[in-house]
Amino acid sequence: QVQLMESGGGLVQAGGSLKLSCAASGSIFRIYSMAWYRQAPGKQRELVADITSRGTTSYADSVKGRFTISRDNAKNTVSLHMNSLKPEDTAVYYCNQAGVYWGKGTLVTVSS
Questions:
Q1: What span, in angstroms and rounded, lies between the C-alpha atoms of 49 and 37?
Q2: Coil vs helix vs strand at 4
Q3: Measuring CA to CA, which residue among 15, 2, 11 is closest to residue 107?
Q4: What is the DSSP string of 56-67?
Q5: Would you say 4 and 102 are in contact if contact means Cβ atoms under 8 Å apart?
Q6: Nearest-10 Cα torsion for 30, 57, 48, 44
Q7: 8 A C-beta contact, residue 20 and residue 96
Q8: With bands split at pLDDT 50, 70 and 90, how would you rate the model's confidence at 95?
Q9: pLDDT digit string (tens) for 26-66?
Q10: For residue 56, what are the contacts with CB-CB under 8 A and spacing of at least 6?
Q11: How far apart are CA 49 and CA 26, in angstroms?
């Protein structure tokens, strides 16, 4: 059974940084693409960034140049480094594996 557990959310001031981590278990981690999504209050869940099994990355336009997704196949983890945070980045951030499996999410709140 695949399990994804996010950590690293919290409250940060605008302009600050946070690092989110997602620990995966129950699958052959290295062969699957991984992604981070987010859902702000009253809005639909949206793709923030993803990384293929080979390490190719892509980002939503709203976070390009500020966020970096990375993976460590030896530790079965995927991370999201978030810099220059803005109040509009406030959301619950979810880890996703292969477009199928979801974590429970971690809340990021950016104060102005």
A1: 7
A2: strand
A3: 11
A4: -EEE-TTTTTTE
A5: yes
A6: -80
A7: no
A8: very high
A9: 888 898 999 999 999 999 999 999 999 999 999 999 999 99
A10: none
A11: 22
What amino acid occupies position 51? I
What is d(CA 38, CA 54) in angstroms, rounded to the nearest whole number?
23
Are 50 and 57 in contact by the 8 Å Cβ rule? The answer is yes
Write the CB contacts of 25 (distance below 8 Å, at least 6 apart in sequence): 2, 3, 76
Q: Which amino acid is at 8?
A: G
Beta bridge partners of 11: 109
Q: What is the mean pLDDT of residues 67-77?
A: 97
Q: Are strands 10-13 and 106-111 parallel, antiparallel or unpaired?
A: parallel
Q: Which two tokens stand for residue 101?
A: 């499996």
